Amino acid sequence: MLTLEWESEGLQTVGIVVIICASLKLLHLLGLIDFSEDSVEDELEMATVRHRPEALELLEAQSKFTKKELQILYRGFKNECPSGVVNEDTFKEIYSQFFPQGDSTTYAHFLFNAFDTDHNGAVSFEDFIRGLSILLRGTVQEKLNWAFNLYDINKDGYITKEEMLDIMKAIYDMMGKCTYPVLKEDAPRQHVETFFQKMDKNKDGVVTIDEFIESCQKDENIMRSMQLFENVI
Amino acid sequence: MAAGVAAWLPFARAAAIGWMPVANCPMPLAPTDKNKRQDELIVLNVSGRRFETWRTTLERYPDTLLGSTEKEFFFNEDTKEYFFDRDPEVFRCVLNFYRTGKLHYPRYECISAYDDELAFYGILPEIIGDCCYEEYKDRKRENAERLQDDLDSENNQESMPSLSFRQTMWRAFENPHTSTMALVFYYVTGFFIAVSVITNVVETVPCGTVPGSKELPCGERYSVAFFCLDTACVMIFTVEYLLRLFAAPSRYRFIRSVMSIIDVVAIMPYYIGLVMTNNEDVSGAFVTLRVFRVFRIFKFSRHSQGLRILGYTLKSCASELGFLLFSLTMAIIIFATVMFYAEKGSSASKFTSIPASFWYTIVTMTTLGYGDMVPKTIAGKIFGSICSLSGVLVIALPVPVIVSNFSRIYHQNQRADKRRAQKKARLARIRVAKTGSSNAYLHSKRNGLLNEALELMGTPEEAHVGKTTSLIESQHHHLLHCLEKTTVSPSPATPTPPPPLSGFRTHILKLVQLQKSKSVPFRVKSSEEAPEEWAVTEVGPALPCSALRPHPTLHPSHGPFSVTEAKGSACQSPSSNGQISRSCYGPQRRISGGPTLVLGDAL
């Protein structure tokens, strides 16, 4: 008998509990009461960051582009990134569209760091123009400086073999697997060895900025190829 | 590569400088931009609405009309803009495609108009963006179905010349409106189905008592009459089934079809009953077989459109019905279990087992509430109320889907019927238009000749007697004339003396005929006939010579024209001395000495 009573009692309580929970949920749904303090809607508002670039005249003074060139560049930039800044993911996406056959994410990551001079995780139009100004309108010295900056991943002023290997692997990744002749597995490593043999004058295992610039200036091919993209804009 | 990303190409190229120091081999030369002109604004005038964009924007897609040199064909030198005589609304979408790289489909546009515009601008519809692609495909499918419907109904209406007896019979069965016999058959079978169903029903009604025994149903009181009725119906049904079987184009498929199964099920009980009347044990089972006679009512679906639609809807909503059934079953089991345990404690509870609780749950969830099983404990009542609330929800959910399916199919059928009804009116309109245009053609022929004749006479004011036709109409008629000239062969001439002339009319006739003969492409052969052509001048009162002067081709000095036997050589200017430079215009002329008046009937 007792068990029967307990059963019915138990079920009664269960029933009442179910009803209370359901009504609480209903009230929450109707928005009359709130359980958690922070709701999701606030987070969305933080995500959209907008950035407006400096005035056209200022940019013209800072960079070596003409007004018209800046206009064309900004139009393309704004079209792709209406919010005014490029974050790393968008950057990688854009860059990967140019190299569909391989994986360009690693190289794009290094490139992003090279463009993002103030290291705030986003490339604004000013950073973009600054980088392009050096690459397209700068002196050979400046360009080599920029390239050194790109290779020097941790920005300590020295290019180590590991850093160079990372860069080289990233470049080879961009090529993809469908090359002819098929690249060997250790091709990046060999390439790094060749590079260090050429660049590292005092054979101390690292390449400083002066060694780098000196060696590059001695190489005809490199000098010529630096002038290659002069008239891109 | 997307259009927007093309703007980043200079950046990617500049970033390539990062590879230079590590490169082993020398780099290839960069392509030079030969005609590097400053980016300029292009004005596109679409039916008066001006759109402006950069030239480079349009050149992003060089294999479309706007991106290639094809647009130069539309360049207007005077206004220095590109003019397109097309819809500006759709052009907005097209231009946005160039700007953003995404092609959108506006919902308010007609699908065929949109397709036409896309085809004009050389854009493939497949690149419509994901946001609008579904809508586009749906509308396109609907349109295609409608066209297919039209085509099918058209094919059905066509009278196929030679049908075998079997095919005529099958067509008669499927479409009772094709012939009177079919209609009669249709109504007769319908009547007998109704009779059969009614007898089935009336059979069971208690019919009053025969003295000395209990209340009898009508079926047993008048068993002979009912038996005769049943026999008659079954005979008709059997005959109908055999005829359909004979006429069916594919017998195997017919046998497997739903309607034929229903037919068989409807008549089988009778035959089985005939065979098994003697055996007493089986007659029990035989009685239950009678219940299948009610399936005869399904035979009505051949007669009723709505019933067919209902059946089709249920078939197409099979998944929704399945979902409904499944969710109901789940809910029933859950609630039955809960109710059973809740009511276990109470005394004299009707909830003796879980399967017994199923009945309560079903009745509650479908909101029937018979009241034969009622919970008595508090917990039972709480859970019972939750059960009924959830029942309403679970049943209400799949129902709108089924309803909307039914509505869609029903309206489709309605539209098809409406189209068929309007088809007659449509065809009549088309016929009127056709005859109207051919009448206009004949009319213009008359008027054209009349006009020319009047011009000849030098009476300018009367030259406007004929009805003025538009340029397009006159060109169209000219074309039809040429066709006539091409196809009609000249008949050999029979020299007949020109009929006596009198009056102005005949003047006109002769003049016209004279003129027409000038334009005739055939070359008059014998020189002796030639003078006869000009013989007209003798006829009738003297015509002013000036009247004849306007004929450029009429040179008295011109010698013989030779009649060619060539048939169908119309519209060819004959060589040599022939100078029939006038292209074909005018009714078919028969050459020779006495040109007969083809024109006579027209006037």
UniProtKB/TrEMBL annotation, chain A:
Keywords: Calcium, Cell membrane, Cytoplasm, Ion channel, Ion transport, Membrane, Metal-binding, Peroxisome, Phosphoprotein, Potassium, Potassium channel, Potassium transport, Repeat, Transport, Voltage-gated channel
Gene Ontology molecular function, alphabetical: calcium ion binding; potassium channel activity; potassium channel regulator activity
Residue span(s) of domain EF-hand: 103-138, 139-174, 187-222
A cellular-component GO term for this protein: peroxisome
GO biological process: regulation of potassium ion transmembrane transport
CDD domains registered for this protein in UniProt: EFh
UniProt xrefs under Pfam families: EF-hand_7 (PF13499), EF-hand_8 (PF13833)
Main localization (coarse): membrane
Domain of life according to the entry: Eukaryota
Membrane topology note: Peripheral membrane protein
Transmembrane segments: none
Similarity comment: Belongs to the recoverin family.
Protein's name according to its UniProt entry: Kv channel-interacting protein 4
UniProtKB/TrEMBL annotation, chain B:
The keyword Mitochondrion appears for this protein: no
Coiled-coil segments on the chain, per record: none
Keywords: Cell membrane, Cell projection, Ion channel, Ion transport, Membrane, Metal-binding, Phosphoprotein, Potassium, Potassium channel, Potassium transport, Signal, Transmembrane, Transmembrane helix, Transport, Voltage-gated channel, Zinc
Residue ranges of the region described as Disordered: 553-588
Bias (Polar residues): 570-582
Subcellular location: Cell membrane; Cell projection, Dendrite
Gene Ontology, cellular component aspect: dendritic spine; neuronal cell body; postsynaptic membrane; voltage-gated potassium channel complex
Protein name: Potassium voltage-gated channel subfamily D member 3
Organism: Myotis myotis
Lineage: Eukaryota, Metazoa, Chordata, Craniata, Vertebrata
